[in-house]
Amino acid sequence: MWFSENWKDYELLDTSDGERLERWGNLILIRPDPQIIWKGVAKHPAWKKADGIYRRSHSGGGAWVKNNLPESWKIQYGDLGFVLRPMGFKHTGLFPEQAANWDWFSGLIREANRPIKVLNLFAYTGGATVAAAKAGASVVHVDASKGIVAQAKENAALSGLADAPIRYIVDDCKKFVEREIRRGNHYDGIIMDPPSYGRGPGGEVWKLEESINELITLTAQLLSDEPLFFLVNSYTTGLSPLTMSYLLELKVRARYGGVIESGELGLKVTQTGAFLPCGASSRWYLK
Questions:
Q1: Tell me, what's the pLDDT at 204?
Q2: Residue 237, SS3 per DSSP
Q3: Which residues, including other chains, have CB under 8 Å from residue 287's CB and lie 6 or more apart?
Q4: Phi and psi at residue 167, in whole multiples of 5°?
Q5: 259 Cβ contact list (under 8 Å, min separation 6)
Q6: For residues 98 and 280, what is the distance between their CA atoms, to the nearest angstrom?
Q7: In the chain, fewer beta carbons within 10 Å around the N or the C end?
Q8: What DSSP line would sit under 185-235, residue for residue?
Q9: How far is Cα 109 from Cα 115, in angstroms, rounded to an integer?
Q10: Residue 22 near residue 51, CB atoms below 8 Å
Q11: How far apart are CA 265 and CA 35, in angstroms?
């Protein structure tokens, strides 16, 4: 399992009864998490002091049933800054477990001692984008949501990267990759964090387990002659990290050699010292 020990502004305080108790800066949130199947073990005193509580509805969806949160607030991860907002579907605009991946590829970029160009697909609010740019890479940031890309720009500015070589693209990621192939563009590092499920602009249904093979096959064609890394994240329960690793074996390592690692991402729970699983990653890189 991969996790970051470097968070100061985020803390997973406790977990019980399908919910996680979290500290984001100075604010306490309670949010649902389907991985938390244990019950009746809530002990942390902050359960009674939540500033925001999101609850799922039995009919689907959910809502903030308690919201004493500001419209937005800011937190830091080292020298990276992020703006948070209480969003629909329980989100805040950041996935703190991904810091383990930020630390990993940032080290590769710094140690490369050459210009590194990174493509970040399904880039959301840009946690990976600002981490790669802060490490010295130029980044192409692609996401289909205009509002989310605008928040990524805010995060870059908070991280001192307003003038960094980051190109923001609002587009369908697969279509962008297909155009980049035709243009002959290449990247030294690729990051992708595709959603488990969604609908395209024409109403077409996206299911990751049905689409990941084609997506990795296409995107691997964008790797440069001296690639540095390829990172695939998944929050799809039925898609194991070993499955993603097998695809990287076929599409990347078979051509370039190197190393593939796969595992779960986790967050350490303060109350118990145990780890909550928070998705999975597969990483290819050259040693």
A1: 64
A2: coil
A3: 258, 259
A4: -105, 120
A5: 253, 284, 285, 286, 287
A6: 10
A7: C
A8: --BSEEEE---SEEE-TTS-EEEHHHHHHHHHHHHHTTB-SS--EEEEEE-
A9: 9
A10: no
A11: 13
Specify the DSSP class assigned to residue 258: -
User: CA triplet 10, 83, 131: central angle to 5 degrees?
Assistant: 75
**Residue 71: which residues within 8 A CB-CB, separation 6 or more?**
85
Q: Which two tokens stand for residue 92?
A: 């805040």
Say whether 87 sits in a helix, a strand or coil.
coil
Beta pairing class for 166-170 and 189-192: unpaired
Please choose, from the candidates 208, 258, 204, the residue with its C-alpha nearest in 3D space to the C-alpha of residue 230. 258
Identify which of 112, 178, 123, 170 has the alpha carbon closest to the alpha carbon of residue 145.
170
Type of residue found at 11: E
- Note the pLDDT tens digit of each residue in 9-59: 999 999 999 999 999 999 999 999 999 999 999 999 999 999 999 999 877
Rg (CA), the chain: 19
Pairwise CA distance, residues 278 & 268, whole Å: 10
Task: Say what the pLDDT of residue 203 is.
Answer: 67
